[in-house]
Specification:
Layout lengths: L3 E5 L4 H12 L5 E4 L10 H6 L8 E4 L2 E4 L1 H9 L9 H32 L6 H25 L12 H10 L13 H11 L9
Parallel strand pairs: 1-2
Antiparallel strand pairs: 1-3, 3-4
Helix pairs in contact: 1-3, 1-6, 4-5, 4-6, 5-7
The chain binds glutathione.
Length: 204
């Protein structure tokens, strides 16, 4: 694989997904750090050269750039056993990764960011108004995961793969957004299984 550089902020679960995928595949990643709290992904240079969308993670492959965490994970894992060969299972894996971005991350990760990094006292009026609906939608997402995992060891085809990585990243730190994972026993059992797969690394 061409030289891989991860443009990232270690606070970000989306960035951790890419690092976790690379760790499982034993792929070396050069890390380039930005502080999102200081707007370092919004500079004219970053927008012009790394990601016009002003966000990390971005995986740089040689001279090309892949923004969007799940796209970067998918690129790294192509052809590996983190992606099912069976087309139905592959689509099912993508289903969970799209679901993560639409139903889970905007609620579970956003509350973590607002409460643990911005701080409740410094939220904008709009953010404050959105807190109850984000909480309700986050609990709904965790409830759906818990129901799915009550019957299975991992998200897709009963084996560890990219859908688990994508969903683990923000679920295991959901407590920082005020979510009580003790209410979701199937999730806590699954998190233990994910963390014990050889190659696992912790979020730094
Ligand atoms: N859908 C994107 C979300 C990327 C995203 O929201 N990144 C955040 C950190 S987790 C960021 O860069 N925020 C800084 C900003 O918006 O200025 C992905 O999965 O990579």
């Amino acid at each position: 694989m061409e030289g891989l550089v991860l443009h990232e902020d270690p606070k970000s679960g989306n960035c951790y997904k890419v690092r976790l995928t690379a760790a499982h595949l034993r792929l070396p990643l050069e890390r380039r750090f930005y502080d999102i709290m200081k707007g370092e992904t919004r500079t004219p240079e970053f927008l012009a050269t790394v990601n016009a969308n002003g966000r990390i993670p971005v995986l740089q492959v040689g001279g090309r750039f892949i923004p969007e965490s799940n796209a970067a994970c998918h690129y790294l894992a192509a052809g590996s056993d983190l992606i099912p060969e069976d087309p139905f299972d592959h689509a099912d894996m993508l289903r969970w990764m799209f679901w993560e971005q639409y139903n889970h991350e905007p609620n579970v990760a956003t509350l973590r960011f607002w409460l643990a990094y911005i701080g409740e006292d410094d939220l904008s009026e709009t953010q404050r108004l959105l807190l109850p609906s984000k909480r309700e939608a986050g609990e709904a997402a965790l409830g759906l995961m818990d129901g799915h995992l009550a019957e299975r060891s991992f998200f897709v085809a009963d084996r560890f793969g990219l859908a688990d990585i994508a969903l683990y990243a923000y679920t295991h730190v959901a407590y920082m957004g005020g979510f009580d994972l003790a209410a979701y026993p199937a999730i806590t059992g699954w998190m233990d299984r994910v963390a014990s797969v050889p190659g696992h690394i912790v979020m730094d």
